Amino acid sequence: MNSVVLFTSDLRLHDHPALRAALAAAHDVVPLFVRDPAVDRSGFAAPNRLAFLADCLADLDAGLRDRGGRLVVRTGDTVAELHAVARQADADEVHMAAGCSRFARDREARLRHALESDGRRLYVHDGVTTAVPPGAVTPQGSDHFAVFTPYFRRWAAEPLRTPLAAPRAVRVAGGVRSEALPSRASVTDVSEGLPTGGEREGRRRLGSWLSRLADTYEERHDDLAGDATSHLSAYLHFGAVSATEAVHRANARGGTGASAFARQLCWRDFHHQVLAARPETATADYRPRQDHWRRGAEAQADLRAWREGRTGYPVVDAAMRQLAHEGWMHNRGRLIAASFLTKTLYVDWREGARHFLDLLVDGDVANNQLNWQWVAGTGTDTRPNRVLNPVLQGRKYDPHGAYVRRWVPELAGLPAGTIHEPWKLTGPERDACDYPDPIVALADGLARFRHARGRD
Ligand code: FAD
Fold it and tell me: What backbone phi and psi angles, to 5 degrees, belong to 231?
């Protein structure tokens, strides 16, 4: 008997329960990845993620070849391609990881139907893409946790499965054709500073981060210029690093930094369990608050300035330029930039989320949309009216102005005292500073900033 393992957001060989089950069930397997045009049509196939994906696939193929196998890549409708491969390989079983988005759920249902109508079986494995599967812990009377802290308590007490070793050998069924792997070089419009993808690089980063920086994570995770977070988000998003293994290794490391890191991984699972229970929140407000977002020409101009990093608020502009350059943004930058767009400019969170998804290498429906909703006040935040003042945030999390200087070269010559408020410069200093005036005034003392020109 042969089997197929369908790779989706789990592009690794270590700690892969679906791959392990496929290998255990069969003599030969087909490790398959399908490039589905439906993903391209959804607008989700952004260049930065396509480039990172190409690295991940190349690395997965290399890892399989080291073990005597290879990766089979096909382009087309996932159901049709998988069905054709299962027939060609004479596979009775197909194994894959469970997904939490509506797209992933629909795909699973279609696959199950197609395979079962042909006498084959689909096995969908939980706990491959998240440490704790969505729905594994629930509060009484609901299918998901709506508040993070009680979720965290239950999540932390939940026993985790032991991470699996990578297989030693993989025998691939003969006679199954593969297309050439997509190449990173063929992807255009990729951010200059995009990292290298793949399991090997992800594991190297996890190891070196846990041994070198994890201990200082709790104190330094908000330090914009220090950049002391793990940078593992894209590896986790593509499944090049296992979330379960990352939590295990953080727990084994111990200490306040590693615990704080594990807590962040819990945020990832938290958003996944919300999206799994409420898939419509990828676009619809989780908690509608009767917002009447600004939409006219002025709002569009503000949105453009925000996207381009020209709002006149240095820390916001620095964050937006980091996003364009690296395809990644520091979490504190994401919070400040998202709060500025939704609370200060009062522009719909969906506009900001779309721009982030166009660029983020870790762009993820659950984490991106639900973090945006959290900041916009339509999500799971228990204090939906909180507003981040970009000047105070800049002074607090970039006290010396190093982050702003790195990303906004027009302000590189300014001292820490004025760098977060360059509009206060006067005379020749002001004339020499080629940087826009703030596009909006901040109304001091208000719980919610109000747009200086009113809502259009
Ligand atoms: P670390 O600080 O080292 O954290 C470790 C891991 O924990 C991260 O890699 C990530 O997987 C997870 N994590 C950390 N913070 C969060 C969080 N708030 N929510 C969910 N998971 C978290 N993260 C994404 O992975 N994809 C996104 O598309 C995304 N969009 C975001 C949009 C907004 C508006 C905001 C405020 C946050 C967003 N985040 C997103 C969460 C967070 O900013 C990133 O995960 C983090 O900055 C990635 O850097 P890191 O790997 O160094 O994180």
Answer: 55, 35
Q: Which residue, by CA, sits nearest to atom 23 of ligand 1?
A: 367
**What CA–CA distance (Å, rounded) separates 147 from 382?**
7
Closest CA to ligand 1's atom 30: 368
Cβ partners under 8 Å of residue 252, min gap 6: none
From first to last of its 456 residues, the chain has per-residue pLDDT tens of 899 999 999 999 999 999 999 999 988 999 999 999 988 888 788 999 999 999 999 999 999 999 999 999 999 999 999 999 999 999 999 999 999 888 899 999 999 999 999 999 999 999 999 999 999 999 999 999 999 999 999 999 999 999 999 999 999 998 899 999 999 999 999 999 999 999 999 999 999 999 988 899 999 999 999 999 999 999 999 999 999 999 999 999 999 999 999 999 999 999 999 999 999 999 999 999 999 999 999 999 999 999 999 999 999 999 999 999 999 999 999 999 999 999 999 999 999 999 999 999 999 999 999 999 999 999 999 999 999 999 999 999 999 999 999 999 999 999 999 999 999 988 888 888 889 999 999 875 333 434 433 333
CA 119 and chain centroid, separation: 37
Alpha helices in 254-345 (DSSP H): 256-277, 297-308, 314-326, 331-339
Q: DSSP 3-state assignment of 150?
A: helix
CA neighbor of 404 nearest in space, from 418, 424, 384: 418
How far is the centre of ligand 1, averaged over its atoms, from the C-alpha of 27 (Å)?
A: 39
- Ligand 1 in reach of 371 Cβ (< 6 A): yes
- Identity of the residue numbered 397: Y
Residue with CA nearest ligand 1 atom 4: 264
Burial zone of 454 (CB within 10 Å; 0-12 exposed, 13-18 middle, 19+ buried): exposed
Span from the CA of 148 to the centroid of ligand 1 (angstroms): 15
Instruction: Tell me the CA–centroid distance for residue 367 and ligand 1, in Å.
Output: 7
367 lines ligand 1 (CB under 6 A): yes
What is the best residue among 268, 354, 356 to mutate for testing ligand 1's pocket, by most ligand atoms within 8 Å of CB? Answer: 268
Q: Is 356 in the pocket of ligand 1 (CB under 6 A)?
A: yes
Mutate to test the pocket of ligand 1, among 101, 329, 360, 362 (most ligand atoms within 8 A of CB): 362
Domains contained in the chain, CATH given? 2-128 (3.40.50.620), 130-160+199-277 (1.25.40.80), 296-452 (1.10.579.10)
